[in-house]
Design a protein that fits this description.
about 40% helix, Translation Initiation Factor IF3, 4 strands, 2 helices, about 90 residues
Length: about 90
Amino acid sequence: MEVLKVSTNSIPKSVAGALAAVLREKGSAELQAVGAGAVNQAVKAIAIARGFVAPNGIDLVCIPAFAEIEIDGEERTAIKFIVEPR
């Protein structure tokens, strides 16, 4: 599954475009976000991506979960969003 990393500085429309492209190509994707700002941008991107793929008859669902990731040698807790068609 393709993993897209989202930061506080990510532009939601750009992430949504990347997400829609991955969904069309591979069928599902995962967004990872660390911190409140990054989670906010990820949720906005998922909402925008729904609008991008809806004309193709694709309805998206999102499954949130925790993930342990390593950043600069330090263990961090991230929120991951598994996005797939319904």
